[in-house]
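Sequence in, structure out. Go.
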Amino acid sequence: MKEAETGFGAWMGAIQARMEAALARLLPQAQLAPARLHEAMRYAALEGGKRVRPLLAFAAGELADASAERIEIAAAAVELIHAYSLVHDDLPCMDDDVLRRGKPTLHVEYDEATALLVGDALQSLAFQLLAEHRIADEARTQLEMVKVLALAAGSRGMAGGQQIDLEATGCSLTLPELEFMHIHKTGALIRAAVLLGAACGRELQQNEKPGLDRYAKAVGLAFQVVDDVLDYDASTATLGKTAGKDSKQGKPTYVSAIGIAAARRLAEELRGQAHEALKGFDARSRRLGELADFIVLRKF
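Output:
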């Protein structure tokens, strides 16, 4: 069946299966020394999650006619950064959670020291993948891809957003302040997934790049808004992680800032912005549009 004729569910399932196989291949084998660390890295990164970031990378890669072999490396690098962030976020010194993706968090299953090292090792492996595989036509493009991921993961991206989140615990944030936090904490890595996927193929036209960036920012914020809604009204069993923990810890969320109904409306507005940003593209943007719908309409 041709790619264009494949339904979204089948396409998503195929990408998720491909990424599971790619991550299993790219991660160190569990029996290699130090075996406990490698086993724990695989525990953190395999058999869990919706792989939203890899899905976005593959969808963006379609715009640039990128090969799947290239995209899966870029997508794996982003997913390893995401996996490391979850391991560290769950530590007692951060969110202190015991459940992730329906199984014990890594520091519970292993120990805190191992969890710290797993996060470090997953982050290092992400950049190793970008350095040792040819995933762009030009060396300068691939170097820029390394920079995009580094910025998304660092103090001006995900790590910085987490620091803002820690400082905001017990405080009330305005909507612009909340948006600023999540542009960094959640949105930066989602944006990186989109940009890296597109960078694996032909260079986009100058008039195409702003639209793709607007799309990435809209779905990045929408993802967090929906996460806040689900944390409020979904069960632990459904989420695979502890429900209602943010409100119990006094963390500012879109629900606490503007209420559940307004948060749902905001998610829909961001979904509309994502679709609007894709209007300058042809049918190859289909999967990006479908992913915007999936992110906002998901129930788990």
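Check: Strands lie at 99-100, 103-104. The chain is about 70% helix and 0% strand.
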